[in-house]
Design goal:
The protein is an alpha+beta fold. The chain is built from six helices and four strands. It has a four-stranded antiparallel beta sheet.
Length: 181
């Protein structure tokens, strides 16, 4: 049972990271950051997937939580090629297979959910944070903060956030340098 909990926690954490970065970088904004984000995420996933940019290329304005939730859907969509997903996470081109692992984990744990919550808060030039609510069955919901950055003309999930989440869950990735003990 402990292994199952660790597996679910690992998926939730990694999925939330993917959600944040994928949601931030690639697709368009279907609205503001107010309102019911859970309901808006469902609507946004369709709108975001068909939008070309939606403002994610404006370094002075981070994307909304609605936009980010739409990108999360895209990141976890097995029909979207990894080459399209790597543009969403800083440094992820070093490990495009990471997205396959996340899609598989989501399929194995369909009851694990991730919702990026408004507001997305600018923390400096080309930097922002967003809270991510992760729900795992039979566990209290967990809210974590994810950093997003403006990198190579797009808002993306920060490599530092993704690597921390991966390392916390003992997932090695070529995009994250090995840390000395």
């Amino acid at each position: 049972m402990k292994d199952e909990h660790v597996k679910l926690h690992k998926i939730a954490t990694a999925g939330m990271a993917v959600a944040a970065f994928l949601t931030i970088a690639a697709c368009g904004d279907s609205g503001g950051s107010g309102g019911d984000e859970t309901t808006a995420a469902t609507t946004a996933s369709t709108t975001a997937a068909t939008s070309a940019d939606g403002g994610v290329s404006d370094p002075s304005k981070p994307p909304s939580a609605v936009t980010l939730n739409g990108l999360l859907e895209k990141a976890l969509d097995p029909a979207v090629p990894n080459s399209a997903k790597t543009a969403l996470v800083q440094g992820s081109s070093a490990d495009p297979k990471l997205f396959d692992k996340l899609v598989t984990a989501k399929k194995q744990n369909p009851d694990v959910t991730y919702v990026l919550q408004a507001p997305v808060i600018a923390t400096g030039p080309g930097q922002a944070t967003v809270k991510v609510k992760v729900t795992v069955p039979q566990q209290p919901a967990l809210t974590v903060e994810a950093q997003i950055i403006y990198d190579q003309g797009k808002w993306k999930l920060a490599k530092s956030t993704v690597c921390l989440l991966l390392q916390t869950n003992k997932v090695a990735s070529p995009m994250c340098p090995a840390q000395a003990n």
